[in-house]
Specification:
The protein has 154 residues and is α+β, with helices and mostly antiparallel strands. The chain has helices spanning 3-24, 26-29, 34-48, 116-129, and strands at 53-56, 60-61, 64-65, 67-68, 83-84, 89-92, 99-107, 133-140, 146-152. It has a five-stranded mixed sheet with strand order 1-6-7-8-9. It has a two-stranded antiparallel ribbon with strand order 2-3. 36% of the residues lie in helices and 26% in strands. Residues 75-82 have low confidence and may be disordered.
Length: 154
């Protein structure tokens, strides 16, 4: 990954965040569900990454469920080989192996205080599914109402 690519992606994501904060910060003020926030942010990301599909909670890898070899949060009897995953936002080409950006988000008001599971999941997305960029975003709600790119997974 070249720094120019990363800088360009970062600039485009920051522009999407700026637009989200300008037009949809109400969702942060009322501490709306993370899915509502990720959906609206994905709309602005899609505008910045023309030619790519931008999806929320997309659980497909071609025709199969998207799975990663990570430690599951809870054991499910039908999920013995790997854990089915639903990334918050992805930038990709549907039906292909062209996986560009995967984003996991966490609100500061979340009852899940440990970021390690999300960070491990992002590493697995890069390693197993070939995403070029994996990013963890922190969402500040109610008082400060902000979104920031917290971690870039190398």
């Amino acid at each position: 990954m070249s720094e120019t690519d990363k800088a360009n992606v970062e600039n485009l994501l920051n522009e999407a965040i700026r637009q989200f904060l300008c037009f949809d910060s109400f969702l942060l003020k009322v501490d709306a569900n993370e899915r509502a926030i990720s959906h609206r942010l994905a709309i602005y990301i899609e505008r910045c990454f023309s030619g790519w599909h931008v999806d929320c909670e997309y659980n497909r890898n071609h025709d199969d469920p998207k799975r990663l070899k990570i430690k599951p949060r809870s054991i499910q009897s039908n999920d013995l080989e790997a854990t089915t995953v639903f990334p918050d936002i992805i930038v990709h080409k549907r039906g292909t192996d062209k996986n560009f950006i995967v984003i996991e988000m966490k609100k500061d008001s979340s009852s899940e205080s440990d970021d390690n599971y999300d960070l491990d999941k992002l590493r697995a997305f890069k390693r197993e599914l070939g995403y070029k960029f994996a990013i963890f975003m922190k969402i500040k709600t109610v008082r400060s109402c902000d979104v920031r790119l917290e971690n870039w997974i190398e």
